[in-house]
């Protein structure tokens, strides 16, 4: 169950990163509210996952899901660059996440 909480926390991290961008420096109310609510939800779910998962594993996976997810949202929704170097960097992050999961005892 901890892994489900952790993945959900990572997805909420993607949402808050995107809505933070849309808030234009917290000057737009609706995206600002969504950012704050999803941040709280993301941190809450991460804390629940950390009850049983090791700190290093949980935090690495959470930030990795957020980083790669925000990267993909940037490309697919915001039209950001998808050059080979950025794609290779994201692939390295994903490979690190897979290795972290495989090495976890929880």
From TrEMBL:
A Pfam family annotated for this UniProt entry: Multi_Drug_Res
Annotated Gene Ontology cellular component terms: plasma membrane
InterPro entries cross-referenced by the UniProt entry: EmrE-like, Small_drug/metabolite_transptr, Small_multidrug_res
Membrane topology classification: Multi-pass membrane protein
Entry GO MF terms: transmembrane transporter activity
Keywords: Cell membrane, Membrane, Transmembrane, Transmembrane helix, Transport
Domain of life the protein comes from: Bacteria
Key word Iron-sulfur present: no
Positions of transmembrane segments: 27-46, 58-79, 85-102
GO BP term, pick one: xenobiotic detoxification by transmembrane export across the plasma membrane
Compartment(s) of residence: Cell membrane
Similarity remark: Belongs to the drug/metabolite transporter (DMT) superfamily. Small multidrug resistance (SMR) (TC 2.A.7.1) family. Gdx/SugE subfamily.
Protein name, as recorded: Guanidinium exporter
